[in-house]
User: Fold this.
Amino acid sequence: MESLFKTVQSVPLNHYILLSAIIFSIGVMGVLLRRNAIIIFMSIELMLNSVNLLLTAFSVYRGDAAGQVFVFFIIALAAAEVAVGLAIIVMVYRNTNSVDINVLNRLKW
Assistant:
């Protein structure tokens, strides 16, 4: 286990920050530019995973496990989000026969 920490610490922290920023930016662009609800949820998951990567990297570099505890809670939150989000998408698809978010105007009263 100690060799894993040395491997993670051998990569400069700036590289983790840059990678996390790139992944987060891809997620933001997916949320803003796509109209498919499934792609939007996948983009939100990308953003959450980039935050997890950053929290884990900072946690290892500081030698503090608090960041990894936050990662555990974020993963639990993401699992709940996927379960509820997919249930909503299934219900929207049953009513509109589409997962395009522009079609959701049909669900208004």
Notes: The domain at 2-101 is CATH 1.10.287.3510 (Helix Hairpins). Residues 66-96 form the longest helix (31 residues). The two ends are 58 Å apart (CA to CA).
